[in-house]
Every structure is written in C-alpha cells, then in structure tokens.
Write a structure and sequence with these properties.
Layout: E1 10-13, E2 16-19, H1 20-34, H2 38-46, H3 49-59, E3 68-72, H4 78-87, E4 92-97, H5 100-112, E5 119-123, E6 136-142, H6 151-161, E7 162-173, H7 182-200, H8 204-216, H9 220-229, E8 233-240, E9 245-251
Parallel strand pairs: 3-4, 3-6, 4-5, 6-7
Antiparallel strand pairs: 1-2, 7-9, 8-9
Helix pairs in contact: 2-7, 3-4, 7-8
Length: about 250
Amino acid sequence: MSEQNNTPGTTHFGFRDVPVAEKQKLVGEVFSSVAGKYDLMNDLMSLGIHRVWKRYFVGTCQVKRGDRVLDLAGGTGDIALLLRERVGTTGHIVLGDINGEMLKVGRDRMTDRGVVSGIEFVECNAESLPFPDASFDLVTIAFGLRNVTNKDAALREMHRVLKVGGQARVLEFSEVKAEWFKPIYDFHSFNILPKLGKLFAHDADSYQYLAESIRKHPPQDELKGMMEVAGFARCSYRNLSAGIVAIHTGYKV
C-alpha cells in the first residue's frame, strides 16, 4: 500500500489520518504501552518465527569483527545481541531507539544477561540522527521503519551516517505474495492479534494499530525505490515467508 496521504499535512497512524506533528507522539504511546510485553507478544504473534527472521537478517549482513554498527529502532535488543556476536569484542554496537521505555527494557535485558560492554544505548530519532557523517560500517533497522513518520528522511540519515562501502539493511513486514494466504494472514492480523494483545499485554488497541501499520507500509518495490532516491546503490530485497517480511539492502558508494 502506498504512503500517499489523502490530506495535506497529515500522515497515517494505522488506518487513521492524523496531523504529521502528532504521529511520533501516538507511536511513542503505543510502544511505551507494550514495552514490557514486547518480546512475549512477538513470540505469540509470529509463533516464534520472528527469531528465525532476525537470525537470517543478521547472519546475512555485511559485517565483520571490529565493525561499528548502528541498530535503529533497536528496542529490546534482539538484533543488537546477534550483531554483537558478529562484531566481537573489538566491535561496537549503538542501539538507537526513539522510545525511552523500549530502551530501558533493552538495557535491563542486556544487564540480566551479563552483557555490559560493546553496546551503547542512545535515545534518538531516526529522522535526525545525532551522529557524524560516515560513522558506521553497517546500519540496520528491524520492524521499525514502518513506524517512522518521515521514512524518506530516515533513509537519508541512514545513508549519511554510513561509511563509503557500508551497508544498510531493513527488515520489515511487507506485502504477502501468495494470494491464497492473504485472507488467512488478514484474519490473523485483525482478529487474533488484538485479542492476544488484550489477553497478554492488556492493550488491544496498540496491536490493532500494529496490524494496520503493516498494511500502510510501502510494499517491496516501492521501498526499494525509496532507498534508491535516498542515495543508496545496488538496492535489492529478499522476501521471507512468502513476503510476510522482506529484507531490503542498499550500499553507500
């Protein structure tokens, strides 16, 4: 589904049009609400498959020991932990997220696991990153781009902070390609997810929004084009699980 808005000065918040200035606040409220149950709900919503997607995403990244990596919308730290294994003790991971509650959950989770070095936590907006040009060998964002108000600005910032030769990777829900599966997926999204959210996170509305936000996110080819406009070269994508999610890749040259 396209990102185009029906009314000037508005953007989508799920299936609702809201003033552009309000979306960041509304998204923040969603993630502050679900932060404590975020990992549990991911397991329930995807039957644990999100862990496979994330391992494949990190396992196929262009990254080596000693690299400096920025993981945007890093939340509770799933991607950062996997990346830390790849960059080793000489590398450095910056886990960035706009939501303080999500960062707190991620920091507590790392501490509980004894991970106290090699990961830095930064509260930041993906549309205006507080890092110098050419700071990172790899920039990742997993299941976060669809919640950014100005995706074009975020992609430009990802490109700006990458070193020449660096890679950007986006893991995000996308457009399901198998026609027979679409009604099953829609039923799960709009009937099962809000009920799971109500039962386990005591918040059906946030999970209704998350299901709607997936439908409003640019499909595979449109996002690839947005990355090209942002300055990335050799852009490509790979569908996983029939297009439920896709991994987009671009390089700074």
